[in-house]
Design brief:
This protein is mainly alpha-helical and 322 residues long. Helix content is 77%, strand content 0%. The chain has 16 helices and no strands. The radius of gyration is 20 Å and the shape is globular.
């Protein structure tokens, strides 16, 4: 790709990662606005186990020896340079957002989750404008979506307690596969599953451990937190190759019913920020009184304003001018 295209793709990745790092804003929507959504979906769909294996074999002495040409051919078949550049931007943005989330979660959880409540609520209102529930199947799908998200938001800490590898793997698969859908935030699903602050905490611990290792720290700290991060990433890869394809098939089969369900998930998830703050074991200092409510509502209104501004000016965004 020309250098300018590399730069634009990287910037789009940064914007997608920043959006997906907070609940309520979808990286898929950013990709749609930037005009790379169809290319992203095509590239992800082109990634198959067979092609991945062929690329890895080309870099080993097997099957005729190391062949950079064959490896490059596989990368070009899946639009790999585009994917690599985009993912690099997404990863960097997610890490930066993660550092901010970890800091705010320890010091100002009410303000942070109030902001998330506003982001989710405003996103739900905007998405509801795009969904016209006209049939019984669409109404049933919407009701089921609200109930599923509402119940999961309240019981996820109990149902998914322990933060074991299986839970982390599932969280990665669900969250990452949702990141490519316009309107549905992967971070929002992590909040619903009760894994949002936990995974950002593990990511922060991993980054701190790697930084300490460079100055003579313990390698065991890296492996302890690194296994959790690797499990989440592996789940995300599996999710992209399976769940994302199933969702795309559902959209193609019955678009209106599928989107009614997905948008309803956002509506039901409004319970998640409040339910999370009500977890006394995680946030023992949070007491609901008038100052707490004022702080929560204040940052919620900021979240509403942010999403409203993005929605108002979305059609004006032209990354070709970057």
């Amino acid at each position: 790709m020309p250098l300018r295209v590399w730069g634009k793709t990287f910037i789009v990745g940064l914007l997608m990662g920043a959006a997906d790092g907070v609940p309520g804003i979808s990286g898929g929507t950013i990709a749609l606005i930037a005009g790379v959504y169809e290319r992203l979906i095509s590239a992800i769909t082109a990634v198959t186990p067979g092609r991945v294996l062929a690329g890895l074999v080309a870099l080993t002495p097997l099957d005729g020896g190391v062949s950079l040409e064959r490896a490059r051919a596989v990368i070009e078949d899946i639009d790999g340079w585009f994917l690599i550049t985009l993912v690099a931007g997404v990863v960097i943005a997610v890490v930066l957002v993660g550092q901010a989330v970890e800091w705010a979660d320890k010091r100002y959880p009410v303000l942070m989750f109030g902001l998330f409540f506003g982001l989710i609520g405003a996103s739900a209102v905007i998405l509801l404008r795009e969904v016209a529930i006209r049939t019984v199947p669409e109404a049933v799908a919407a009701i089921v979506g609200v109930i599923v998200a509402f119940l999961a938001s309240g019981f996820s800490e109990t149902l998914l307690s322990g933060n074991g590898y299986a839970v982390i793997f599932i969280a990665g698969a669900v969250a990452v596969s949702a990141m490519i859908l316009p309107g549905l935030s992967g971070s929002l699903l992590l909040v619903i599953l009760g894994q949002y602050t936990y995974m950002y905490g593990r990511l922060g611990t991993f980054i701190d451990a790697v930084t300490a290792l460079l100055s003579g720290g313990s390698f065991s700290r890296v492996t302890t937190s690194g296994v959790d991060v690797a499990t989440f990433v592996l789940g995300g890869i599996v999710g992209l190759l399976t769940i994302a394809r199933l969702i795309r098939k559902a959209i193609r089969t019955n678009r209106d019913v599928t989107f009614a369900f997905l948008v309803a998930l956002v509506v039901g998830a409004l319970r998640a920020p409040i339910a999370t703050l009500n977890d006394a074991s995680e946030y023992p200092s949070v007491v609901w009184n008038w100052p707490t409510v004022q702080a929560f509502v204040g940052t919620a209104l900021i979240g509403v304003l942010v999403v409203s501004i993005l929605d108002w000016y979305a059609v004006e965004i032209d990354l070709d001018s970057v």
